[in-house]
Amino acid sequence: MVPTQADDGPPCALCGGDHPRAACPSAARPVAHTLGLDEPLPVVPDPLLGTMVGSFRVQRLLGRGGMGTVYLAEHPVIGSKVAIKFLHESMCANPELVGRFYDEARAVNLIGHENIVAIFDLALLPPSRYYIIMEYLDGAPFSALLRASRVDPAISLDVLLQLADALRAAHDRGVVHRDLKPENVFLVRRRGRAHFVKLMDFGIAKLADRQTGARTAAGVIVGTPEYMAPEQCENGRIDRRTDVYALGMMAYEAATGRLPFTGQGIPHILLAQLRQLPRPPREVDPTISPALEAVILKALQKDPADRFQDMAAFAAALEEVRRGPERAAARPPGAPAARALAPQLDVAGPGGYHRRLRPSEAARGGLFFPEEGTLPPLFSRLAVDVPAAGGRPVRVEGEVVRHVSAAEAARWQMQPGFALQLGALPGDAQAAVDALAAQLASRPALTPQPTEVPAPLALDAIAKRAAGGPYELLGARPEDGFPEIRERARAVRRQLEALQQNLTSGTRATRVPILLAQVDAAAALLGSPGERLMLDARRGNFHGVAHCVTAGTPPPVLEARRQAMLSEDPRRADEAQRHLARARVAEKLGNVAAALAEYEAALRSDPLDLELHRPYWDLRRRLEPR
Ligand SMILES: Nc1ncnc2c1ncn2[C@@H]1O[C@H](COP(=O)(O)OP(=O)(O)OP(=O)(O)O)[C@@H](O)[C@H]1O
């Protein structure tokens, strides 16, 4: 890692980092230095710094690991930052190691989950330096938080739950991480959350059809001893439950502030993993809840058959713990859960529909409003004002996808009303809905169980979305990156597959395979930078264009596509220039909001013009809170 500067001295002259030049790790030190000459020798600047790699300029060293050196790099126009990991020079001639380096990218791309670091490209810098371009993580590893102080249990649970979800996605694709530890979990600020998880380092991940560990010599054990499951310590059968154990270790460490088996050398730790029982967490810290202790100890069972069998079961148990204390405090065992009263929300729709309604349930995907009177029509779009952190409500939009009649409500033991499915939401709106969901989390589930959901209606809603285009079908937001799009596609696929089970016959059942094919086509279209670029450009979706540029679309390709688009509609360029001129005036006058709006209008007209992107993203970056 880069040593940091104790005072506020000037940035390093070699790499621009926060450390004195003399301590710059990017400098290769001549051999004579190690020979003990008194005279300090001049350091050799890192030749990669300042060079262009693909479409990015290498800016500074981020750190070195066992396989490679990682640099921060920036797109000179869009300003988007990426991390570039170069395989160590000495390893580039070794096909085994190059293969393992590529396996990491392959494993990550197979999964494509928002809580896993995204990999954009994988290439060779001539003559023989391999590198991968990945999402830059501006944050800190979970280990730094654990070392700094005892972590708030609510934060730990949130981190563990995000990890469990990322790992569930990995396991679904046949990938077992095998090196879970707090150092490999980055926490970044995203969508209003201070601890958004990014899991990284799939360098020794096991893929279903191939095993990167097999690339290590026979008998060599891979992993980090403190987190290794017994079967991993003795080179046994590795499967998803191996990751359950490691996540259990992280849960233990987060709860108690220490690991059960440490010190006294690697063989001692490996033996302890095999034979010794961990000290129960409540013996270390009696304030830990019995429920959490039970979950941790179950995850740490020596025999995989005694652990949670998959991440979904582990996550469900952690979720119970998260809800536990309020429930326990509010009611005796067996009594109904306490009812948090949701706020009344303004709900407006077509034909002057306006009500103040209290949702009984809120989740990422939607809201349920108990309502006895006339319900808004199915498939009508409603706007709902949800209370937000700043005091002013944010407006979210959704579609009425289900009516629950009085008869159905009696059968399902719930209230009559309607369900509103929310579309893709911008960050602040999503945060407001998440907060509402958290507020209602201690309430019993009132919507029907998935098997009881009226499948035909849900299917109709998806078919209607399919008619709107690929973004609408996937429920993706224009600003979503490639991992989010892949995740959305998988979610809609899962939903359709579940519906298929409920539709045994009839014309609707035959529509499912067609919709599944449409989902795959939408995912392929939006998942490929080359294809997505033109769709986004035509829609004026400059966010999407920026993602495609960051993913490596070269400027000449971009300009050729732009010329093709302008030849279809030459007015676009003039329109963009008019907005650009207004934006510049507004920016000069210090009217930032107007400047942003004008830049956005310019970009919507001519989204492939990189010269328009530059001032817009510059301004956005200046406004971003650090
Ligand atoms: N995507 C990224 N964004 C920001 N910083 C990163 C990123 N990837 C790696 N780093 C930084 O670079 C350092 C080295 O990363 P790398 O993955 O090579 O290290 P490592 O985890 O020690 O690897 P290994 O397990 O292969 O030894 C990390 O410690 C981290 O600080």
Word description of this protein:
The radius of gyration is 27 Å and the shape is globular. The two termini are 22 Å apart. The protein folds into five domains: 47-135, 2-Layer Sandwich (Phosphorylase Kinase, domain 1), CATH 3.30.200.20; 139-326, Transferase(Phosphotransferase) domain 1 (Transferase(Phosphotransferase), domain 1, Orthogonal Bundle), CATH 1.10.510; 345-442, Beta Barrel (Thrombin, subunit H); 455-527, no CATH class; 530-623, Serine Threonine Protein Phosphatase 5, Tetratricopeptide repeat, CATH 1.25.40. A seven-stranded antiparallel beta sheet has the order 14-13-17-18-19-16-15. Strands 1-2-3-4-6-5 form a six-stranded antiparallel beta sheet, covered by helices on one side. With 626 residues, it is an alpha+beta fold. A hairpin with a 7-residue loop joins strand 17 and strand 18. Helix content is 44%, strand content 16%. The chain contains 22 helices and 19 strands. Bound molecules: adenosine-5'-triphosphate (ATP). Adenosine-5'-triphosphate (ATP) binds next to strand 2, strand 3, strand 4 and strand 6. Its EC number is 2.7.11.1. Pfam families: Pkinase (PF00069). ATP binds at residue 85. One of its GO terms (molecular function) is ATP binding. Keywords: ATP-binding, Kinase, Nucleotide-binding, Serine/threonine-protein kinase, Transferase.
